[in-house]
Design goal:
The protein is of the alpha+beta class. The chain folds into two domains: 48 residues, Pemi-like Protein 1, Chain: D, CATH 2.10.260.10; 32 residues, no CATH class. It has a two-stranded antiparallel sheet with strand order 1-2. 4% of the residues are buried. Bound molecules: zinc ion.
C-alpha cells in the first residue's frame, strides 16, 4: 500500500469518511470497532482488540458480560473473594 495525501472534511457531527480503498486494503468493514487515540498530537485509528480491563494484556482473555479479563487477573480476583 502506498501512502497518499488525502483530505477529508469533518461533518457537523464530527464524522469523517475513511477512503474506500484504505478500508478495503486494511479489511475494515461496516460495523467494525476502531480505537481512536491521540499520539503526539496525531489522531490514530486502530483496530479494536480486546484487552484485560485490569492489567491491559491481550493474552489469555476470558469474557464476562462483554468485558474481558485475563486468566491471571480472574484468578487473583477469585482468590481475593
Ligand atoms: Zn489482567
Amino acid at each position: 500500500m502506498t501512502t497518499q495525501d488525502r483530505t477529508r472534511r469533518v461533518d457537523s457531527l464530527g464524522r469523517v469518511v475513511l477512503p474506500a480503498d484504505l478500508r478495503h486494503a486494511l479489511g475494515i468493514r461496516e460495523g467494525d470497532v476502531l480505537d481512536v487515540a491521540v499520539n503526539d498530537g496525531q489522531l490514530v485509528l486502530s483496530r479494536h482488540e480486546p484487552k484485560c480491563v485490569f492489567c491491559g494484556t491481550r493474552d489469555d482473555l476470558r469474557e464476562r458480560s462483554g468485558r474481558h479479563a485475563c486468566g491471571a487477573c480472574v484468578s487473583a480476583l477469585d482468590a481475593a473473594q
